[in-house]
Amino acid sequence: MSGHSKWSQIKRSKGLKDQKKGQTFTKLANAITIAVKQGGAVADPEQNFRLRLAIDAARTANMPKENIDRAIKRAIEKDAGQLQEVTYEGFAPDGISIIVEAATNNPARTTAEIKSIFNKNNASFGQPGSVSYQFRQIGRIVVSKTNHVFDEIFNIALEQGAEDIDEEGDEVLIYTKFQDLSGIKQKLDEAGLMVIEADVFREPQIKMEVNDPILLSKIENFVELLEGQDDVLRVYTNLA
Fold first, then answer.
1. Which three-class secondary structure state does DSSP give residue 213?
2. Reported pTM
3. In this predicted model, what pLDDT tens digit does every residue of 88-145 receive, in sequence order?
4. Could you tell me the CA-to-CA distances from 25 to 31, 91, 130, 193, 239 in Å, in that order?
5. How far is the C-alpha of 123 from the C-alpha of 219, rounded, in Å?
6. Which of 223, 204, 220, 200 is nearest to 212 (CA)?
7. Sheet holding 232-237: strands in order across?
8. Are 195 and 143 in contact (CB under 8 A)?
9. Quick one: the chain helix, strand, coil %, rounded to 5?
10. For labelling alongside 143, which of 56, 64, 130, 177 has CA 20 to 30 A away?
11. DSSP string covering 49-94, please?
């Protein structure tokens, strides 16, 4: 039961290894602030699921509680309006579709920096909507096999309405509909599974393969440059 790309698996494995390097406390704090703002200024993670996910990610990265509290407080203060979420679309080398999500208090500066990365890497900066139609938002839950074997986790997740399930080393990746993520995660917790990560991301509906190792390396480097930009929260591609 696996319809997800090899690229997404590689990206996730690499992403976990580089999480502390790539997701600085500043980026995590911005994600928390944006979650509160987009949740109608609801600062209670029990009533704002996106905020709960952002806090969980911050805790995984060992972000101090006072930093988390400060990010939430900033979101409900008047000057929080300066921070906004922006999305960029375009094409990496070889026409690979790409979406960049960022949080910034200076959109003009961030846009200029993102465009510069595109221009210097033989990539095309696109207009809003140029590639987003190729992606759909889904949920992903990562469960550790510490307390259960794969078959047990598979059966529990399937019973709770999971759309897809992948095994990856000591972990199981469970994919859900966007609107079902919160409920399924809660049920997995109640079933005694060790949930180590849950998030919402954009799944490419049209995937492209790149067989040239040199070209693939260029695309990977381009993605890493985007992820290294201070305001960028997440980068998506349609690589198979």
1. helix
2. 0.83
3. 999 999 999 999 999 999 999 999 999 999 999 999 999 999 999 999 999 999 999 9
4. 10, 29, 31, 28, 28
5. 9
6. 220
7. 124-125, 84-92, 96-104, 232-237
8. yes
9. 50, 25, 25
10. 64
11. HHHHHHHHHHHHTT--HHHHHHHHHHHHSGGGGG-EEEEEEEEEGG
**Polymer length of the chain:** 240
Q: At 111, list the tokens.
A: 């846009």
Q: At 203, list the tokens.
A: 């799944």
Which residue is it, tokens 């709960």?
A: 52
pLDDT tens by residue, 176-222: 998 899 889 989 999 999 998 888 889 999 889 999 999 999 999 99
Ordered structural domains, the chain, with CATH: 23-82 (1.10.10.200), 84-131+206-237 (3.30.70.980), 134-204 (3.30.70.980)
